[in-house]
Design brief:
The protein is built from 8 helices and 5 strands, in the order E-E-E-E-H-E-H-H-H-H-H-H-H. It is mainly α. Helix 2 packs antiparallel against helix 3. It is globular and about 55 Å long.
């Protein structure tokens, strides 16, 4: 069962008080996961960034927590903290591109003032770029030639758009690798995946050989590395 604790946050930009929720616990039901660490349906998302309902500026939720956690009874009188999914462009046809620009802009605006915050935003940017080709429709859903042509055209356009962000993807992952190693005791399997997606397959194989536990995820990543395939894939 997924449980939340209602809290009150204070916008660091305009001091507006807003209601929000802290995730306390959850149960996984048929969750999907990807080689880049992103999880989908079945696991609740924990967004560390909020958007003020009044000034519409982003802020770190940890920085907006009050020193004390008073028993705020009139929660219904407070506006709710917004997130990226409340922004108007989230329903636009080019929302994938705007999501990439959103996280890229946070990095350029100096929003990440610690290594931990930078790692979080860069991970979101990594996932956002991969999203361009992540959710490809399967051929099992095809019912006729028209649907097949639409699927193939969508895949071609998605790959073409993804290629325009390839340099940004590589630069971003290289910075992630630096931050990951700098943090000490990095997860070798995750580190190998980063190198694989930059196309450094020899380095990825070198790291994979150091992993002691050869589980299903390890075997899949090694298989893709040996194929010299840098695409994100579902685990």
């Amino acid at each position: 069962m997924t449980t939340y604790h209602q809290i009150v946050l204070k916008c660091p930009n305009c001091s507006t008080l807003m209601s929000a929720y802290d995730l306390m616990s959850y149960t996984v039901h048929d969750a999907e996961s990807w080689s880049d660490g992103k999880t989908g349906f079945g696991i609740p998302s924990v967004d560390r960034i909020g958007i003020c309902a009044v000034c519409r500026l982003p802020f770190w939720k940890d920085d907006a927590k009050l020193p004390d956690d008073p028993d705020w009874q009139p929660h219904e009188d407070l506006a709710s903290v917004m997130d990226m999914y409340d922004l108007e462009w989230r329903f636009d046809d080019d929302r994938d591109v705007k999501t990439i620009d959103y996280f890229k802009g946070l990095l350029e605006d100096g929003f990440t003032d610690t290594d931990d915050k930078e790692f979080y935003v860069r991970t979101q940017l990594w996932w956002a770029i991969n999203d361009l080709t992540r959710y490809r429709g399967g051929y099992r859903s095809v019912r006729n030639l028209r649907m097949l042509n639409a699927l193939l055209n969508h895949r071609r356009e998605s790959k073409k758009l993804f290629n325009t962000y390839r340099d940004l993807l590589h630069d971003n992952i290289e910075r992630l690798i630096f931050l990951f190693i700098k943090g000490g005791e990095p997860d070798l399997l995750y580190l190998a995946e980063m190198y694989r997606e930059t196309g450094d397959f020899s380095k990825a194989l070198e790291i994979l050989d150091k992993v002691e536990r050869h589980d299903r995820t390890w075997r899949k990543i090694k298989k893709m590395t040996r194929r010299k395939d840098s695409r994100v894939f579902k685990l």
